[in-house]
Amino acid sequence: MQKNIPNILTILRFILIPVILYFIFTGHYLLGFIFFTISGITDILDGAIARKFNLITNFGKLMDPLADKLTQISVLATLVFQKIIPFWILIVVLLKELLMIIGASFLYGKDVVVYSKWFGKLVLFYLAIVCSLIIKEFALTGIWQNLDFILYCIAVIATIFSFIMYVKYLYKDGFINKSDLKKEKQPVIINKKNTQKKSNTK
To answer: Which residues touch 40 (CB under 8 Å, ≥6 apart)?
Structure first.
């Protein structure tokens, strides 16, 4: 049972997605905030438990980042639909994820390990989303009214920075095996002396 705890937490995040979206759509932003926060906590816990007790599985490697992306993109799309945030923020996130998928497809089949970096763990979008939900729930005005938009702008810049850094490390740290790219076909040399000796012994 202990071995499956990280995977159970990951599955729980998938289950929480429609719950979060429902509360945002119906205007229950505080409940949306609560369940969104629970989702974020499970994200932290499943990774920490998996690493500490060596419970890392192929399922977790695939589904954990997928749960993160689906949660973030679906919530952002809902906020756009509710006209809480501008559409271009969602477009930037989608473009970044699309480029990451293209990059992963390019590396597919190679002897490559692409591990996460600190800049891939930035949580600014989570903070911005939480800020949006709190502002809408309590109808905050004044300086607080535009705080979430400022955080979204910073998060977009961080997203672009994250993608650039991944591309940089892709080549710098050898995620692509450069030796494979430099390999040339070596000519096959036949030792004529050995072949002659073999023919003579026959």
So the answer is: 123, 126
